[in-house]
Amino acid sequence: MKVFSFRNIRILFLLSLLAITLIYTQEQKLSTTSWYKPVTVTIFPINGDGQIDTGSFINSLDVNAFQDIDEFFARNSRDYDLIASQPIQTTLGEEIRDLPPQPPKDAGMLSAILYSLKLRYWAYQHTPDNISNKNRIRLYVLYHQSSQQKALPHSLGLQKGLIGIVHAYANDKLSGQNAVVMAHEILHTVGASDKYDHHLMPIYPHGYAEPDRQPLYPQHFAEIMAGRMATSDHEAEIPTSLRAVKVGNTTAREVNWIP
């Protein structure tokens, strides 16, 4: 009887914890997709490869290093008449010394759920300030030395928890490319979906910044959630900066820029 009672208490505790988490997550979603005031994005840099040069690069960062991201969201928001003229405001947080948990190799739903919970707990342990996370996005950016022989790991953004894990280059010359990836993951955290296929080609029409352009190719801009600008029906280029990127109508609708 005691065992049964303890089991009931444990189940009740877990259900209560789940309910609280769901309510908090819903409040986060409503707070960050109303767009009546700016959403803060705190960028926490991490030395992703442990290199001395990477550490020196992180030490040289200041908030101006992410100004292109703020300008990108301000520029694109004007096309959708948002109340907040500056929908995203980036700030630079403290350097984090520990690496986040690795995503599972198993692509199953259960593994994804468990990883999401594990990552959210890790972020809870590695948020070195007392700012509320109800209306801010935490972006953990793992910097690496650039190498032509080794591609960066995949970045990700979670809407539940408003957390992004970004892999970026510790190289000023590639800051524009880094900003594109960061903006992409920021939009994931507020509900945007990917718009490229398994060959990394933009999906027509939602993955095209100018789907009505005549002639259709080459596209002059990349749609942010497609990540590439199509130059033909089987070729696409990676944008080198956010100046060559736009928020398309489908993405705008997903993040509540369009009612």
3D structure, described in words:
- The chain is α/β, with parallel strands linked by helices and 259 residues long.
- It has 2 domains: 23-191, 3-Layer(aba) Sandwich (Collagenase (Catalytic Domain)); 193-259, no CATH class.
- Helices cover 34% and strands 17% of the residues.
- It is built from 6 helices and 9 strands.
- The strands form 3 sheets. A 5-stranded mixed β-sheet has the order 2-1-3-5-4, sandwiched between helices. A two-stranded parallel ribbon has the order 6-9.
- Strand 7 (229-232) and strand 8 (235-237) form a beta hairpin.
- Helix 3 crosses helix 5 (175-189).
- The model has no long low-confidence stretch (mean pLDDT 90).
List keywords for this structure.
259 residues; 17% strand; 6 helices; 5-stranded mixed sheet; alpha/beta; two-stranded parallel sheet; 34% helix; 2 domains; Collagenase (Catalytic Domain)
Brief account:
The chain is α/β, with parallel strands linked by helices and 259 residues long.
How far is it from the N-terminal to the C-terminal residue, by CA?
A: 54 Å
Radius of gyration, whole Å: 20 Å
Under the CATH scheme, which class of the largest domain?
Alpha Beta
Largest sheet: 5 strands, mixed
CATH architecture of the largest domain: 3-Layer(aba) Sandwich
Overall form: globular
The arrangement of helices and strands along the chain is HEHHEHEEEHEEEEH
Strand content: 15-25%
> Helix fraction?
25-40%
Counting H and I runs of at least 4 residues, what is the number of helices?
6
- Low-pLDDT stretches are none
Strand order of the largest sheet: 2-1-3-5-4
Beta-strand segment tally: 9
Mean pLDDT across all amino acids: 90
Structural class: alpha/beta
Count of distinct structural domains = 2
